[in-house]
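Re: the 139-residue chain
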Amino acid sequence: MLYKNKTLDSLDLGFNIIGSQGGVALASTLSENRYLASLILQHNRIGSAAALKFSEVLSSDEKKTMGTLDISNCNIGDAGGAAMQRLADNKKNVGNLIICGNKVGLCDCKLCVLADADKVGKASEAVRTKTRSKATSLL
């Protein structure tokens, strides 16, 4: 359905128990959909495979822009966090990339450090400001 969409610009699927396969399928639809500007998937179980797919799809097309991608509390893990960091570092086609509340542990990318620190309230404002200036904001 999203492949053919030409009118829907925002989709909120938060809190829907979407798993890895569903997350990968949603990410795949973005390769064909130029109209969706905001995708909210917070509090789902998309995991690292879907995060990697979102990063792949959004990185592969310079013309594809997304205002907001919210994958907070989606269990993206270290691999997903690192993929989101690469997306934030290399592209300017995602305005608000929200990954807070994910289980990241060994990953030391800036986004994961910030997301993990925000979760426990230890992030410094200087780190937040620097990370946001890289075309990424965490809410």
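The first strand starts at residue 10 and ends at 12.
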